[in-house]
């Protein structure tokens, strides 16, 4: 039986980044403006064509006025959520429902304080719930890198994955980054180089973490009908899903090996007639490398518990079963907080990825976050 | 120079019971007085039966190790001289999936892979950070600190 679609068919018609880098000295507004102008240019649209905006980072209404969008028929500021998928998901929904016709979704993320500033007391990481933080801070638990260590260690315990598997993961991602001019980290990296790095939160090392930077990303959603008249090859939103399975305390997840990506993947596949085996490329969040492994399994792209071996066997490389994070991932392109996975999926489906292009790519999945919440979107070549 | 303590718990009526019990070297966890469900971290409502009748109750202080990570980077001045240390999630024996986050202490940090075994039996102990700031911690059963 075929899945019934609700609302208008949605396309992605423009993508753009700001001048992403370490401590750029540019404001959130400046990053938003740069990303927006480049996404408009990519699409062949004018600022006045945009009638809806969403963002995490800064303010959608502020951006819309500043950049010169039309009067907004729809806008949304996202708080703590599963990264870029949240403004993107809701932008696509607004277009599908006809609340707006052409919506720009942003993720603006400024580099966080260096750990030396944290250790000296000169800076403090923000907390979504100060009330819950009282049960973390006295234990020296301040940073997401600490729950990531818990997830990774439990995953290794249950699946038999080893540090060598994560070393291979880092090597594969860097090999993609070397083919991506947008990547910030492009030097050669071997599995041995990875293993030579010190632990941050054993068993997790610095090369398991996304690379902190200032970034602005923008993606334009409109109707399939309008997209036909625009500049780029057609990329369509086939299905999308958001999931939330508990509150904001990652450390207390009772099953750290199967968190919300499994729930989210089940929702996603229930909304399309496509199947995991149809996926040409996957673009799976790597705020920490363990997250990509959870997505490979949660989306059914490999066997449950088999993601580490899947990577070891080369199945995520070019020519493998599911080329994954072909831009090099946020570990190498810098923390664009999920938006890079959307943008790279779009570029793969357009055939614009140069020597990292997956031949004949026609179905791409991108996904963000892990643990208590997550989101995923399935895109097809029009 | 005195090293500042970690940020103190806020003045929060929902969690006062926990910190007052810790000062008496007792581990108390919020429990629904209607259906008996334990809830951590404390909340104003029971997620099982939606009762608002909740109170802290003493628990056995026994748990099993669910996962751990050894932190090498301090994120606060208090921990600069204390790295590496182990952050752990433990499952309290009172209820399946009743997770509690703490440090695993009473182990050799240099031998953490051998000494921190998933599923191992643990017991609560109490650590005075200073100024009456006492935190519940877990250690392997029988280890004398």
Structure write-up:
The complex is a heterodimer of chains A (382) and B (145). With 382 residues, chain A is of the alpha/beta class. Chain A folds into two domains: 8-112 and 213-232, Thiolase/Chalcone synthase (Peroxisomal Thiolase, Chain A, domain 1), CATH 3.40.47.10; 143-211 and 239-382, 3-Layer(aba) Sandwich (Peroxisomal Thiolase, Chain A, domain 1). Helix content of chain A is 34%, strand content 18%. Chain A is built from 14 helices and eleven strands. Chain A has helices spanning 28-43, 60-67, 85-96, 115-120, 130-133, 144-159, 163-177, 191-196, 224-227, 260-269, 289-298, 307-312, 330-333, 339-350; strands spanning 10-17, 52-56, 74-77, 102-109, 199-202, 204-205, 215-223, 235-244, 281-284, 363-368, 373-381. Chain A has a five-stranded mixed β-sheet, with helices on both faces. A four-stranded mixed β-sheet of chain A has the order 8-11-10-9, with helices on both faces. In chain A, helix 10 (260-269) runs parallel beside helix 11. The mean pLDDT of chain A is 95. Chain B has 145 residues and is mainly beta. Chain B folds into two domains: 10-59, no CATH class; 60-145, Beta Barrel (OB fold (Dihydrolipoamide Acetyltransferase, E2P)), CATH 2.40.50. Chain B is built from two helices and eight strands, in the order H-E-E-E-E-E-E-H-E-E. Chain B has helices at 16-23, 112-115, and strands at 28-32, 38-39, 54-58, 62-71, 85-92, 99-103, 121-128, 134-140. In chain B, the strands form two sheets. In chain B, strands 6-5-4-7-8 form a five-stranded antiparallel β-sheet. A three-stranded antiparallel β-sheet of chain B has the order 2-1-3. Chain B is globular and about 45 Å long. At the A-B interface, helix 4, helix 5, helix 6 and strand 5 of A face strand 4, strand 5 and strand 6 of B. Strand 5 (199-202) of chain A pairs antiparallel with strand 4 (62-71) of chain B, so a sheet runs across the interface.
């Amino acid at each position: 039986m075929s899945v019934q679609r609700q609302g208008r068919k949605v396309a992605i018609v423009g993508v753009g980044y700001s001048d992403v880098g370490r401590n750029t000295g540019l404001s959130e507004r400046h990053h938003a403006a740069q990303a927006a102008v480049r996404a408009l240019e990519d699409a062949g649209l004018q600022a006045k064509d945009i009638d809806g905006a969403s963002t995490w980072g800064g303010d959608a209404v502020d951006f819309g006025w500043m950049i010169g969008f039309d009067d907004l028929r729809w806008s949304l500021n996202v708080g703590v959520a599963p990264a870029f998928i949240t403004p993107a998901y809701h932008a696509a929904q607004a277009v599908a429902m006809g609340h707006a016709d052409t919506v720009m979704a942003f993720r603006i993320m400024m580099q966080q304080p260096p750990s030396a500033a944290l250790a000296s007391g000169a800076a403090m990481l923000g907390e979504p719930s100060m009330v819950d933080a009282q049960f973390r801070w006295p234990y020296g638990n301040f940073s997401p890198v600490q729950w990531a260590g818990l997830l990774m260690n439990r995953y290794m315990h249950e699946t038999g994955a080893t540090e060598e598997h994560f070393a291979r993961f880092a090597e594969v991602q860097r090999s993609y980054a070397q083919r991506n001019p947008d990547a910030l980290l492009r030097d050669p990296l071997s599995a041995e180089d990875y293993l030579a790095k010190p632990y941050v939160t054993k068993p997790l090392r610095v090369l398991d973490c996304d690379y902190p930077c200032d970034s602005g990303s923008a993606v334009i959603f409109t109707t399939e009908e309008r997209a036909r008249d625009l500049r780029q090859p057609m990329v369509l939103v086939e299905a999308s899903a958001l999931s939330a399975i508990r509150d904001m305390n990652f450390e207390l997840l009772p099953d750290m090996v199967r968190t919300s990506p499994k729930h989210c993947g089940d929702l996603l596949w229930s909304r399309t007639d496509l199947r995991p085996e149809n996926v040409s490329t996957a673009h799976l969040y790597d705020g920490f490398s363990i997250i990509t492994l959870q997505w490979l399994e949660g989306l059914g792209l490999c066997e449950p518990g088999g993601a580490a071996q899947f990577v070891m066997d080369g199945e995520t490389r070019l020519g493998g079963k599911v080329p994954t994070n072909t831009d090099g991932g946020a570990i190498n392109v810098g923390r664009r907080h999920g938006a890079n996975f959307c943008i790279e999926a779009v570029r793969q489906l357009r055939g614009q990825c140069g020597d990292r292009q997956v031949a004949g790519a026609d179905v791409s999945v991108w996904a963000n976050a892990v643990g208590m919440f997550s989101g995923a979107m399935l895109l097809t070549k029009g | 120079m005195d090293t500042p303590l970690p940020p103190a718990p806020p003045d929060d009526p929902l969690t006062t019971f926990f910190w007052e019990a810790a000062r008496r070297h007792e581990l108390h966890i919020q429990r629904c007085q209607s259906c008996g469900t334990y809830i951590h971290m404390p909340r104003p409502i029971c997620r099982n039966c939606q009762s608002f009748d909740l109170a802290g109750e003493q628990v056995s202080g026994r748990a099993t190790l669910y996962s751990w990570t050894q932190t090498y980077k301090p994120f606060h001045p208090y921990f600069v001289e204390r790295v590496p240390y182990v952050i752990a999630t433990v499952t309290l024996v009172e209820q399946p999936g009743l997770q509690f986050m703490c440090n695993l202490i009473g182990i050799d940090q240099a031998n953490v892979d051998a000494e921190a075994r998933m599923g191992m039996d643990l017991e609560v102990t109490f650590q005075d950070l200073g100024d009456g700031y006492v935190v519940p911690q877990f250690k392997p059963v029988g280890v004398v600190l």
